[in-house]
Amino acid sequence: MIELYKKQHKSSFSLGVFPTIELLKYKPTAVLKVYLSTKGSKNRGIDKIVDLCKRHKIPYEFSDNTVNKLSPKENTHAVGIFNKYDSPVKAGENHVVLVNPQDMGNIGTLIRTMLAFDILNLAIISPGVDVFHPKAVRSAMGAVFQINFSYFPSLLDYKQSFANKLYFFTKAGSTLAEKANYVSPFALVFGNEAAGFSHDQTNLGETVKLRQSAKVDSLNISITAGIAMYEATKTILAKS
């Protein structure tokens, strides 16, 4: 019997055609089964899912009842059931660090943006959003299946585990983002959507701020992170 997602479960699921394709492409060994909706039979992505399932010998089934049960959205045509897996953050590579993130939509957008700027490691300081939650997987459009991620009990624990230089993005930053000297491997650090950083945390690295008008109090974390990633990687990506 398939149940709705709970964090303590050993498995999760992708909702939607594109996230399920990404799951099958990048984590096929974790996939248990794929359920498809008959309403999506004319969707070209369904044919691709079936092809990937056959290629990797993954069972699939057309079951409108199962798809409807697992997805709150009527336009969901595919659900991929997969075992949760470990893909820890790698040393010697650039990281994004999120301190107590709570919004699944924000983290999904942020993870997809990480791929755009070729940053493949995400460290989350607990407590924080569950990246395996189907809403997070869907909001990332399956990009979560291409990144490494680890949870840490505190920012200090993270710092003691990696040699990355920490850049804290905050309105009170001492250096403008476009003028900061980003030394790889770096860690771009973003605070909780509501609480931001404590003074003890920002003392662990360099503080950076974005140039913005005074017409708004702050930017959404996924937008801030996108701008920060652009600034930190523009020289690196220009050479690629």
Would you summarize the structure shown here?
By secondary structure, this protein is an alpha/beta fold. About 30% of the residues lie in helices and about 20% in strands.
The CATH class of the largest domain, by name, is Alpha Beta
Strand content: 15-25%
Biggest sheet statistics: 7 strands, parallel
How many strand segments?
A: 11
Question: What percent of the residues sit in helical stretches (DSSP H or I)?
Answer: 25-40%
CATH homologous superfamily grouping of the largest domain: SPOUT methyltransferase, trefoil knot domain
Give the domain tally: 2
Please state the average pLDDT score: 91
Structural class: alpha/beta
Strand order of the largest sheet: 7-6-5-10-8-11-9
CATH architecture of the largest domain: 3-Layer(aba) Sandwich
What kind of assembly state do the chains in view correspond to?
single chain
- Which runs of at least 5 residues are low in confidence (pLDDT < 50)? none
Q: Do you know the CATH topology of the largest domain? A: Alpha/beta knot
- SSE order, one letter for each helix or strand: EHEHEHEEHEHEHEEEHEH
Would you mind describing this structure in some detail?
The protein is an alpha/beta fold and 240 residues long. It folds into two domains: 73 residues, Ribosomal protein L30/S12 (60s Ribosomal Protein L30, Chain: A, 2-Layer Sandwich), CATH 3.30.1330.30; 144 residues, Alpha/beta knot (3-Layer(aba) Sandwich). It contains eight helices and eleven strands. The chain has a seven-stranded parallel sheet with strand order 7-6-5-10-8-11-9, with helices on both faces. The protein has a four-stranded mixed sheet with strand order 1-4-2-3. Helix 4 runs parallel beside helix 8. The longest helix has 18 residues. The radius of gyration is 19 Å and the shape is elongated. The protein starts with 10 loop residues before the first strand and ends with a helix.
